[in-house]
Amino acid sequence: MAMTRSQIAMVVTLPWLAAGVVLLAMTRIDGETQAAKLGLFGSAAICFSIGCLARTTLGLHDLMQASHSMAAPPQPPSGPPPSPPRNDPP
């Protein structure tokens, strides 16, 4: 089952949303050590970089599809060739 374009866009956006949530959590946590806050910041940075990688991959895929569609000649409809008429004796 293929994913629609909007589903793919949502999946690509999820790591950036996760990074934002982790950064917000980092600013709201009181009483944590500096090491714990740096750990959360590192996690947010990893989520952000995963989102960048996913978006770049999707963009490269779109470019490749566009170049293939421009370079490829139109394909004839596929299917079995029509069978010749049968000449049965009566």
Question: Alpha-carbon distance between the termini?
Answer: 50 Å
In angstroms, what is the radius of gyration? 26 Å
Run of helices and strands: HH
Stretches where pLDDT falls below 50 for ≥5 residues?
Answer: none
Task: Report the structural category.
Answer: mainly alpha
Per DSSP E runs of 2 or more residues, the count of β-strands stands at 0
Taking the sheet with the most strands, its summary is: none
Helix content estimate: 55-70%
Tally of contiguous helical segments: 2
Strand content: under 5%
Average pLDDT rating: 84
Q: What would you call the shape? A: rod-shaped
3D architecture notes:
This protein is an all-alpha fold and 90 residues long. The protein is 69% helix and 0% strand. The chain is built from 2 helices and no strands. The protein has helices at residues 5-28, 34-71. Helix 1 runs antiparallel to helix 2. The longest helix is centred in the middle third of the chain and has 38 residues, at 34-71. It is rod-shaped, with a radius of gyration of 26 Å.
What key attributes describe this structure?
single chain; 90 residues; rod-shaped
